[in-house]
Design a protein that fits this description.
With 264 residues, the chain is of the alpha/beta class. Helix content is 44%, strand content 15%. It has an eight-stranded parallel barrel with strand order 1-2-3-4-5-6-7-8, surrounded by five helices. The chain is globular and about 45 Å long.
Length: 264
């Protein structure tokens, strides 16, 4: 592993002032960490993006949008275009989050249009996929992940690691009542994801796409998860929303991924 990917989506919890305070403190607390080993990102609410851009050192922290429309412009009331995200300082577009799919009704086809649009405009598409508890219980997890990938990435030219990240977030592991997947279960699903990406894009491109695990990641399970062979990063929820706590989690992960002598 050359670099570890660590980030969070603050959902609809932090407004403008809270986001500014948070990103400023997070940058200050992690400024000493080598960014050639760490890709650190925060995905705040749309209203806080521009203020976060002005408050955070872009060399220390990447910003993203929690969703994105599939057109550069047009009669899409309430949507945010890729150009708007870029103007606000976002370089990442989070697409297909389980809440968008299962609460707000987004389909794989809609997600696919967004992925293609994001990559076309130079954003990193962070594609979120994951099975429900019922699908897991019926042994359909791998089939669901393969289908979400094949539909969500349909007609996408072989991407580089800067164009596409994939976050595996089992639906049953997300939220206050979520139960985190064991590191072994997460690793098996990541193996399936990697295998599918190689089938879609070839060995070279498919092997270089970063795979992140998200779903009730916390200081107790983060180190075990990141040590799995096919987990390249962690997409963290409420455990990351306190900057000092997130900073400690980041350091714990880096310590195990890159021993002290390699961090100098």
């Amino acid at each position: 592993m050359e670099k570890v990917y660590l980030g969070t989506n603050t959902k609809m919890y932090k407004g403008l002032a809270d986001t500014v305070s948070y990103v400023e403190e997070l940058c200050r607390l992690t400024a000493d960490l080598p960014r050639e080993k760490l890709e650190l990102f925060v995905i705040p609410s749309f209203i806080a993006l521009d203020a976060a851009r002005k408050s955070a050192d872009q060399k220390l922290l990447r910003l993203g949008g929690q969703n994105m429309g599939w057109a550069e412009e047009g009669p899409y009331t309430g949507e945010i275009s890729p150009r708007m995200l870029l103007e606000c300082g976002a370089t990442i577009a989070e697409l297909g989050h389980s809440e968008r799919r299962h609460v707000l009704g987004e389909t794989d086809e809609m997600v696919n249009r967004k992925v293609l649009c994001a990559v076309e405009h130079g954003l990193t598409a962070l594609l979120c996929i994951g099975e429900t508890a019922e699908e897991k219980e019926k042994g359909l997890a791998d089939e669901v992940l393969q289908m979400q990938l094949k539909r969500g990435l349909y007609q996408l030219p072989p991407p580089t690691g800067e164009q596409l990240w994939v976050a595996y977030e089992p639906v049953w592991a997300i939220g206050e009542q979520g139960v985190p997947a064991t590191k072994e279960y997460a690793e098996e699903r990541h193996r399936t994801i990697r295998r599918t990406l190689v089938q879609l894009f070839g060995e070279e491109r498919g092997a270089q796409i970063p795979l992140l695990y998200g779903g009730s990641v916390n200081p107790e399970n983060a180190v075990g998860l990141i040590q799995m062979e096919h987990i390249d990063g962690l997409f963290i929820g409420r455990s990351a929303w306190d900057a000092p706590r997130f900073s400690q989690l980041i350091r714990s992960v880096l310590d195990v991924c890159f021993p002290k002598e390699t961090m100098l």
